[in-house]
Amino acid sequence: MDWAHASRGPACIDAASLAPQIVLAAHAPANIARLLRDHPATTTAFLAALTGHWHRNAHQPAPPAPTGLRAYQQRAAAAGLALLDYHLG
């Protein structure tokens, strides 16, 4: 959220943002499918964009700090891809 320009948005974006974090916490994509099913087109588009963002940034040069950022982005991208594979499969 950009707190300087806070506004209400579609609730499915919250679900799409939270779902990869649940996968990172060792839950299977099938167990969180209900978070993604209410608005499939919007959720899929946002999840694909978020996964692409993580994937792209994971391959950038490492910043001086914080340590582990690129590794996290790689894991987050993998979680997003797993969700997309399940969601679209």
Number of domains: 1
Note the beta-strand portion. under 5%
* Helix content estimate: 55-70%
The H/E string reads HHHH
Terminus-to-terminus distance? 30 Å
Question: Tell me, what's the shape?
Answer: globular
- Low-confidence residue ranges: none
DSSP, total strands? 0
Radius of gyration: 14 Å
Mean pLDDT: 88
The number of helical runs is: 4
Largest sheet: none
- Classification by helices and strands: mainly alpha
Overview of the molecule:
- With 89 residues, the protein is mainly α.
- It has one domain (10-88).
- Helix content is 64%, strand content 0%.
- It contains 4 helices and no strands.
Helix/strand layout:
Blueprint: H1 11-24, H2 33-36, H3 40-58, H4 69-88
